[in-house]
Structures are given as C-alpha cells and as structure tokens.
Amino acid sequence: MHESFDLGSFLVGLPLGILIASIILFISWRKGKKERRFDERYTRIHEQARSFSWRVTTVTILFGWGIIILVEGPRLAFFLMTGIWVAHMLSYAIGAAIASSKN
User: Is the pLDDT of residue 1 over 60?
Assistant: First the structure.
C-alpha cells in the first residue's frame, strides 16, 4: 500500500459514495418514470442495443481466443478465455430460457 493511503477515509468514503450514487439513480429513475421515459420504444431500443453488444462481445472473445491459442498455446490465458466464453454463452442460454418462459 502507498504510505499516504488512509484506510479510514476509504472505508467511510466508499459507502458514502455508493449511497450518494444510489440516491441520484433513484431520483433520476422516479423522474424518468413520471416523464414516461421507460415506455415500449425505450425498452425495444435498449433490447436491440444489448443484442448488438452481445454479438460484438462474442466475436471479440472468439478473435482473442484464436490469437491467444496461436501465440501462447494452451496456457493460463487460453483457459481463462475459455472460462469467459463458457460464462458468456451460459448467460445467453439462461437469458433465453427466462425470456422464452415469459412469452
């Protein structure tokens, strides 16, 4: 640790920062709900954005995975990327199962 690091200030400041951020998020959520910012159009736009982002992340992981296996071979980084890939695909499968059960 750095000598000038004050653990007491950190332990007080961290929860205080989380509390202030939570209050701001709550106020903006209530204001948005009153102004009808979270309607069907908003939901559809963000669903499409998340879908596009998920596809880009999938391609990025695959490219990174390929580069790692070519450069390093089957070492720690390869297995970490494999774990990330498995978690990524499992989250999709769970999300698809939840979405299909709601419809």
Answer: no
